[in-house]
Design brief:
Elements (H helix, E strand, L loop, with lengths): L5 H23 L3 H7 L7 H8 L8 H20 L4 H6 L13 H8 L1 H14 L3
């Protein structure tokens, strides 16, 4: 049995990330527009999102891969903060929050882009006591 070539491995990893993040979006019950915004994609790029939902690899984009990493970190923090309440962990991204001037975390990310991702992640890190 031969080992996978490095480029093949990266493609497989990006396909797994696509499945993970689109599954996460489904759990968070985000609209297509919100999903595109969280990934930093244009509203006109629905086709890319559809491909990712089918398990095709994420584009080889540093911005996209960084965003997915932060989103998965947000999910991990929520699971650690609410270990016995999966529904709350999944609903949190769409609940209005005083910390974000009454916006939902998803709206905060949509409005502030990459900075919004950092804002939400930092808020959760503080909540976890880190």
């Amino acid at each position: 049995m031969s080992a996978a070539q490095p480029s093949e491995t990266h493609t497989i990893d990006r396909a797994e990330l696509a499945k993970m993040v689109t599954t996460l979006f489904a759990h968070w019950q985000l609209s297509t527009e919100e999903q595109l915004a969280l990934l930093g994609l244009s509203i006109a790029n629905r086709a890319a999102l559809a491909r990712y939902r089918k398990g095709q690899p994420l584009a080889q984009s540093r911005d996209l891969l960084d965003r997915v990493g932060i989103l998965l970190g947000i999910h991990k923090s929520l699971r650690l903060l609410f270990p016995h309440n999966r529904e709350l962990a999944y609903a949190w991204m769409t609940q209005h929050n005083k910390a974000f001037e009454g916006m939902t975390p998803a709206e905060t990310i949509k409005q502030w882009g990459f900075n919004g991702l950092f804002m939400v992640r930092a808020y959760l890190d503080r909540a976890r006591g880190q």
